[in-house]
Specification:
Layout (H helix, E strand, L loop, with lengths): L1 E3 L19 E2 L2 E2 H11 L4 E6 L3 H8 L8 E6 L6 H8 L7 E6 L2 E2 L4 H11 L3 E7 L9 E4 L2 E5 L10 E10 L14 H10 L3 E5 L5 E2 L3 H13 L6
Parallel strand pairs: 1-4, 1-6, 4-5, 8-12
Antiparallel strand pairs: 2-3, 6-11, 7-13, 8-11, 9-10
């Protein structure tokens, strides 16, 4: 599942006429980079959740054949449903467990290793984390002994040295309690599950890249310009 429904206000004026996932990175629409990267990882099916200017995304991606994937584009509808609300709206299309990543994240990690960690962890949620030390963004995770101990996007603790990396695995039943067509935030779902001790942590050593801001966009373009294999 790719969450690509936000209005991308931090990327204005670029995103006044196009959605964030179609912003070009080194001349290539970002969603192309992301979907090709998933195909290389062995992913075969993608549910792409869109909101703001979502019809442009649907036309560009189509069925996903150009990426070697099967893609289903699901719009929020008349109002934006938020990251968890949009997953709830697409729940009938999803299997018992699935990956979730943000539509502005360029991640260098092994999906196969993360899937194995999720299965071995035997918890309903897995969150990838990175030892951020407040370098790339505000650290918001306490991680220890393979488990996420504390997580918040609002209340930051001194012992928070990790950050959520941008890739998660969820069991489907966690979204059943969200009313259909009701806006809901994925961060609230995560925080509640962390408090219950239900979140396995998987530490990724490589830093993350994102295009949620102009600075992030410049960082990714610089990385891809220096990377010998930008698609992996």
């Amino acid at each position: 599942v790719i969450l690509a429904g936000g209005q991308a206000t931090r990327l204005r004026p670029i995103t006044e006429t196009i959605p964030k996932c179609l912003v070009e990175v080194s001349g290539v629409p970002f969603i192309d980079l992301q979907l090709r990267q998933l195909a290389v990882q062995g992913i075969t099916e993608v549910v792409l959740l869109v909101g703001y200017l979502g019809e442009m995304v649907a036309r560009h991606v189509s069925t996903g054949n150009n990426y070697g994937l099967k893609v289903k584009v699901v719009p929020d509808g008349p109002r934006l449903l938020g990251t968890a609300g949009s997953i709830r709206a697409a729940l009938d299309l999803l299997p018992q467990a699935f990956f979730v990543l943000y539509g502005d994240s360029y991640l260098r990690c092994s999906y196969a290793e993360i899937q194995l960690a999720f299965l071995n962890g035997q918890r309903p949620v897995l969150m990838t984390v990175h030892r951020n030390e407040r370098r790339w963004d505000t650290s918001n995770v306490v991680f220890a002994d393979g488990r996420v101990i504390s997580y918040s996007k609002q209340h930051f603790l001194p012992e928070m040295n990790h950050i959520d990396y941008g890739l998660m695995v969820f069991r489907r039943e966690l979204f059943n309690s969200i009313p259909v067509a009701h806006p809901a935030d994925l961060a609230d779902i995560l925080a509640a599950q962390v408090k219950k001790g239900n979140v396995t942590g998987f530490e990724v050593r490589e830093r993350f890249y994102e295009i949620g801001s102009h600075a992030g966009l410049r960082d990714l373009e610089e990385f891809l310009g220096s990377s010998p294999s930008p698609q992996t």
